[in-house]
Amino acid sequence: MSSIGYFFKESLQGFARNLSTALGSIITIFLSLLIIGVFFVAGSMLNNLMKSVESEVTITAYVADDAPEEDIQSVMSTISQMPDVAEVSFTTKEQALENFSNSMTSNPEIIEQLDGTNPLPASIDVELTDPQAVQSVASSIESDQAYVKISEDPENAGDSIKYGQGTVERLFQLTNYVRYIGIALIVLLIFIALVFINNTIRLAILARRKEIAIMRLVGASNGFIRGPFLMEGALHALIGSVLAIIVIQLLRTFALPQLENAIRFLDFTVPDMTYVMIYVGLAVAGVIIGLIGSAIAMRRYLKV
Prior knowledge:
It is built from eleven helices and four strands; from the N terminus they run ααβαβααβααβαααα. The chain has helices at residues 2-17, 19-54, 69-80, 93-103, 108-113, 134-143, 145-150, 165-207, 209-217, 222-262, 272-301, and strands at residues 58-63, 85-91, 122-128, 161-162. It is elongated, with a radius of gyration of 31 Å. The protein has 304 residues and is α+β, with helices and mostly antiparallel strands.
């Protein structure tokens, strides 16, 4: 315990000796962890939004008006046994027209133009357990000869299967790009924080080089010499992470409600436990960054 107290005391003295450099290190870590924290919060929001959008990804397989009921039931049974299929239902021509009419309440003239006719086909509707599997399931349905037989266009069954092909592909590409960019950004910010910690500890080592030489002469262990520098790096990072947590909490309390009021059609809800995990992760990551940055600096500049 006495050694830890000594390390803490020396780290505070080192902080005071190199105040401007230490503040620069803390600010850099604070900004880096703040951006990382905001990214994780935004990522959680985006993930919830994407899950909501992906949950709407379904496959609609249109069938011919004269398709026999038993053939339709057989195809539905086959589809229900396919991997990644959650539920299979059937929409009749009448139900399709009713659904269309309900969606066109603001434009009733469109319904009036139908003049009592029903041009909409019946369809087999497929919900998925994994929206990412939509293309493989659609391909399986298209290659099923029993479905081809009852499809709206037997000559080209693929045209009778709709799942928002282009939109779905772009959606999944967007989510993947966001993940890759986020990972690259986090790695870059951690690297920048390590560089600043490294420079700060290097200056602290240079400022205390005479004291370190005396400690070597009197037989101080390597761990005893390294301790204050490790503590100082961890202290900088911990202060930076606490500041980042405070700012994120302030944004959550004051800025997020304003954003929710401005954009009501999007759900920005993030569970409290997610915030707790982010805060704990930032604090732990900050200390680890501080220790690693200090260790790298000591390895290069402190020959003990």
